[in-house]
Design brief:
The protein contains three helices and seven strands; from the N terminus they run H-E-E-E-H-E-H-E-E-E. The chain is of the alpha/beta class. A hairpin with a 6-residue loop joins strand 5 and strand 6.
């Protein structure tokens, strides 16, 4: 008995089909993975003002401006002309808790002021700039929840208009 081939004979004008099964399998796995990981990426933009020497001091009487100068030895808090406080390093680390407490006190004294400057020496790591900016901009304070009685944490704005620059 002769073998019969069950193949279609190819003719000259026959169209070829593309097998997309493998591609579809890849998409079935890739799309949920990308959707899940996209939730965890968050981009935050903080608008900063760069101090300029062209603009002089304003003519109003109360031109108080908080300046936090981060140096190798510690941090200094000034009002633009004189040093208000100096916060030395503790165990070779910056004392961010003391800075936060002092920023809260300054905001209580000057509740209408929102401008602050963070000035850094050239060799200070960038991470310290971000930490100082976060402390100067806002603070987390515990608040007791009256319904459940458990302490909650609320974010309070301190000096929201932040300028950055080089330390003098």
């Amino acid at each position: 008995m002769a073998r019969q081939h069950h193949y279609k004979r190819r003719t000259k004008g026959a169209a070829h089909e593309i097998d997309v099964t493998t591609f579809l399998n890849l998409m079935v796995v890739l799309v949920p993975f990308l959707l899940i990981t996209a939730v965890f990426s968050r981009l935050t933009i903080v608008e900063l003002n760069l101090p300029s020497s062209a603009g002089g001091p304003s003519n109003n009487e109360d031109n108080f401006r908080v300046e936090v100068v981060v140096r190798e030895t510690g941090m200094e808090i000034t009002n633009g002309t004189q040093t208000i406080a100096s916060i030395p390093k503790k165990d070779d680390e910056y004392d961010f808790q003391t800075l936060s407490d002092f920023m809260i006190e300054l905001k209580r004294e000057y509740p209408d002021h929102d401008a602050a400057s963070v000035l850094m020496e050239a060799h200070i790591p960038y991470d310290y700039l971000i930490q100082v900016m976060d402390i100067v901009r806002s603070v987390e304070l515990p608040v007791k929840d009256p319904i459940e009685g458990e302490p909650q944490v609320e974010l309070y704005a301190l000096f929201s208009e932040i300028s950055v620059g080089d330390a003098p």
